[in-house]
Design goal:
Number of strands: 10
Number of helices: 9
Helix content: 25-40%
CATH architecture: Alpha-Beta Barrel
Strand order of the largest sheet: 3-2-1-10-7-6-5-4
CATH topology: TIM Barrel
CATH class: Alpha Beta
Radius of gyration: 18 Å
Number of domains: 1
CATH superfamily: Divalent-metal-dependent TIM barrel enzymes
Structural class: alpha/beta
Length: about 280
């Protein structure tokens, strides 16, 4: 397995050249970049990122021998693919199209997409059907792009069990659409190794973060790796059992005063995980 870190773990004022320099120096195999709103950080991709800027990022990636393994995004919460509003769904589809373009330009093989739309005004049945339809309409574009779509389980109450995620992916029936499974996002109510067992070869990418459960159900908080409740030996063994040998990408909060400390303890923890 190869080890990467998401650029959200890097302080927002760090520029692209320093981002690649710092992450390469820490010993990671790759970096995950993010499609964000304008001015969110000095190392964010945006809907307006130019061709020249992408060429410069590609050059940095080559110079530091640090491939862009995938591209995540924070934009799908603002333009939900499962929204009851057709205009919002169209905006979500436009984001996904741009997301694919950015990934192709950077030679990343996967983008992280968040399906959803559940709220007080949008019931689960509607959100599920609309998200399915939004993605199904883009199947040909996704498959012809050469970039896979990894659907992530986030804290939006859309995927509440591995069965939900398996069914949603299987109904789309596309080899280019699978799971971007976030290990830490299910730890408050479930066991991530059980999800991995059911998702199997649907898994396109893995996000790594730890979660320390509280005294009561649905309580707890995210912590550094190996400081939480997740049994990493079981997680890694489950990944190996289903034949996953791809990227493990850490997604943790920043430590602005000493980001190098976060990079070091995280890469050391991830190396420990896969060495057993």
């Amino acid at each position: 397995m190869k080890l990467a870190i998401n650029a959200w773990s890097v302080p927002a004022d760090v520029t692209f050249p320093d981002l690649f320099k710092q992450i390469a120096a820490a010993g990671y195999d790759g970096i995950e970049l993010n499609l964000d709103a304008d001015n969110q950080s000095a190392h964010a991709l945006t809907m307006a990122t130019t061709h020249e800027a992408l060429k410069q990022i590609t050059s940095l990636s080559a110079s530091f021998q640090l491939p862009v393994c995938s591209v995540s995004s924070s934009l799908y919460g603002r333009a939900q693919l499962g929204s009851a509003d057709p205009e919002e769904r169209r905006r979500g589809q436009d984001i996904l199209r741009r997301h694919l373009e950015l990934a192709r330009a950077l030679s990343a093989d996967t983008i992280l997409v968040v399906p959803g739309g559940i709220s007080e005004s949008v019931d689960r049945v509607t959100a599920y059907a609309q998200a399915q339809a939004s993605l199904a309409q883009l199947k040909d574009e996704i498959e012809s792009s050469g970039v896979a779509v990894g659907l992530e389980n986030v804290w939006n109450s859309f995927f509440l069990s591995p069965s939900d995620m398996v069914q949603f992916i299987d109904q789309l029936d596309s080899p280019a659409i699978g799971a971007y499974f976030d290990v830490g996002n299910v730890a408050v109510f479930s066991y991530p190794e059980h999800w991995i067992e059911m998702l199997g070869q649907r898994i396109k990418k893995i996000h790594i973060k730890d979660f320390r459960k509280g005294a009561s159900w649905y309580q707890g908080h995210f912590v550094n790796l190996y400081e939480g409740s997740i049994n990493w030996s079981r997680v890694i063994n489950a990944l190996r059992d289903v034949g996953y040998d791809g990227w493990l990408t850490a997604e943790l909060g920043t430590i602005p005063q000493n980001p190098q400390y976060l990079y070091r303890i995280t890469i050391d923890a991830m190396r420990c995980m896969i060495s057993k």
